[in-house]
Amino acid sequence: AHLEAVEEASAELQALRLRIRVEAGERRGVLRSARRLARDNPGDPAVGLALAQAALAARESRLAVDTLERTVAAAPTDPEVHYMLGRAQRALADADAAEAAFARTLELNPSFTDASVELGYLLLDTGQWERAEALFAPLARRRILTGRDYALIGRLGQVEALLGLGAIDDAKVQLGRVREGQRELGSVKRIEARVALADGRPGDAVRAVRALAEAEGAPVDVRVLFGDALYAAGETLPASAAYEGALADDPAHPEALLGFATVLIRGEKYDEATGVLERAAAALTERIRPPALRARLKYLEGRAALGAEDLATARESLEAATALTGVPPEAFFYLGEALSETNAREARAAYQQYLEREQDGALANRARRAIR
Question: What does each C-alpha distance from 304 to 50, 195, 213, 320 come to in angstroms?
Fold first, then answer.
């Protein structure tokens, strides 16, 4: 109202109005207006924040980072500038720089809760489960005042960190502490599905996210999670459809590509799977993901090569996979298969490592027969 009442509003007020438009979900023309305001007010920190926020909303991450680096130089002690820089660097897949920016934000303002939340999400992205759990746990105990429900954010972040640590029972306990009135929230349903998958209950996972995944405009991440649940429940064709639908909207989504490749390998379409895995490898250079996802990529590369009878490539990929954190136990079994014709001793050792991890796994009987 003030802007409409004055002929010449200050650059700061114009910048705030642009940021409000971004927060309200408006996209049309906002970045163009922010560029024009920045051109007319070079070096103004408030204008720099507005341009960076508009750039992030438009997925112009490089523009946001470049703008914020200049803004940091102009306002080095402004915690919001460092916070926005962290968000931009995370979007640009520069995990180390993003973590440093969020840490600097919290040095300048330890009560900047959104920076704590973003740092926690970054730690989850990079597989730093223990640090993430330690950060989210205090948030889960916070009283709800106004604005964002940080207690719920903290609880769900803690659950995700516990799943990463393999503490499934602890994750179930924390999920059980979510208030009854929050159980139908989409964010809760997504975590509920992840817990069910980790707990070997794929049917419960399917039920948890089916409505979310089948709703019009469902987020890609939700549709990929639905595909994972369907595949684990043995519904291969619907899982494939879920992955393909997700990839139609985001062709470089790493989890969707790996899920689709898994379906192709199961269908013995090894050449097609190899092409999808090449796309996944490229996507993982551009997006921040935990080490376990790279381990899964190498494992699937080995499976595809083994199916195509390219034993040398299979051995190389599976040996690389088994050296990584979070590798699927099945990688050791298939490494044994790849080695069985050329190195019986190492093949036996690989089968035994699989059995140590999956004594009652789906491949356990085959592994036992192989080492007799």
Answer: 47, 29, 29, 14
